Amino acid sequence: MRGTIAAIFTAFTMHHKAQILDRRITPLLPYWPGRGPIAHMNHDDLNHWSKRAADWARDYHAGLRDQPVRAPVKPGETAAKLPAFAPESAEPMEQIFADFESIVPGATTHWQHPRFFAYFPANASPASMLAEQLANAIAGQAMLWQTAPAANEIEAVMINWLRDALGLPDGFTGTIHDSATTTTLAAILTMRERVLDWQGNKQGLSALPQLRLYASGETHSSIDKAARIAGIGQDNLVKIPTNADHQMDTGALDAAITSDLAAGFLPAGVIACVGGTSIGASDDIAATVAVAKTHDLYVHVDAAWAGSAMICPEYRHIWAGVEGADSIVFNPHKWLGAQFDCAVQFLKNPAEQINTLGLRPEYLNTLGQDEITNYNEWTVPLGRRFRALKLWFTLRAYGLEGLRDRIRNHINWARECHDTIAKMDRFEITTAPAFSLFTFRYKESDAETEALLTRINDDGRIYLTQTRQNGKFVIRMQVGQFDCTREDVMMVPTVLNNLTGG
Ligand code: PLP
Questions:
Q1: Over the stretch 183-204, which tens digit does the pLDDT of each residue have?
Q2: Greater pLDDT, 501 or 416
Q3: How many CA atoms lie within 13 A of 446 on its CB side?
Q4: Which atom of ligand 1 is nearest to the CA of 273?
Q5: CA distances from 73 to 206, 321, 430, 484 (A)
Q6: How far is the CA of 222 from the centre of ligand 1 (A)?
Q7: What's this model's pTM, rounded to 2 decimal places?
Q8: Which residues 6+ apart lie within 8 Å of 332 measured at CB?
């Protein structure tokens, strides 16, 4: 592996050394054929090129089914096509656009490909893409109400729309972050400060009691990352065992908290999952909240992927009791069609998070508007994109009913695909569908399952990824693409058959 990286690095360096020589003979004033010296791109040019980009986007999406889902390139190939230095003088957009077309699509893993069944999706509705174009045109920064009144007020309304759409009670309000990772970090920082009476921010943690967090092994690694960054430490994130349904064992949770208290630790909060990343596990939220609340602990629910499915009332039993949580995150950028990035956090008592994250130096004071909501005080970064616009466009352009239809189809097609694979002799289902995610393995062995996965992804018709279940290497399959059809999903058993001689 090291040898390969060294070889790529050497090729890259030699290529760029040659370019250093080229650069010495590059004329200082480039010439744009037919237009004389290059005029710098202006807003009229932007209009022209935006139309070209829109045509390109239409053709790109229309042609995706004919492309391999995963980029068929080797590490270093793309970088080697780029000059080593930024140009000293302007280049014609014609050339820049041509380079984009020749270099980028062929080295792109197509997240909007209808047969992208890897990881969790980052599905993007066309309406969301349009909203992003408009937000890009405004190119604003929504850190304060005053710096972006429309963005901030639409954000507040979208939070209410989504809260109601997910069946959450009126008591929740919330905000939009970039990712579930930073949302969970915000929640864990809030747990920390709440239990320390906001002294951690002030004094630092060294003289304060050792904190504890609790979660099952089915939660995402973003919880581990937040425990590290928050200064609580990975060792103080207690991983509670799970039961046969892959749910956190709430008896074990209670016992762990009680024994930590007796040992002088300071429990700060519990993180529960709904639709965990590996196999889609969901904790018993009501029982988890009940245990946490007997110890007055803060509860954060990570429903990054599966939260979107809660627009369908028939799935809400899976997170029954969620109204008892203090903080909930879900990513409309995963399964609701509002493209990456867009993570929504619902909060029962935002004041606790604002007390943790909010700072008001003089230059951020908004004179005469102190009571207005300034969402930068709710989130880790100060700067904020206008993410609410893509929610507004998506929710209106498809309606909740249209979005529910999509999610229901995904879940039904995943089940049909699962049933078909379950009947294939050479395969073994390792976990049943949780929403639209299930796992399976090639009966032969771990090594053969892994080799098969490589062949599947080299084949290119579909894209799947892996996890480990009960110590075994298994293949994950999830359905969630905005434009996918039943035929796209049923391509999975076809590819499995083709590649295993079925
Ligand atoms: N939580 C869960 C359950 C996830 O599946 C993921 C990512 O897939 C995350 C958190 C992290 O999401 P993000 O990329 O928005 O930080």
A1: 999 999 999 999 999 999 999 9
A2: 416
A3: 7
A4: 3
A5: 48, 47, 31, 25
A6: 7
A7: 0.92
A8: 162, 308, 338, 342, 343, 344, 391, 394
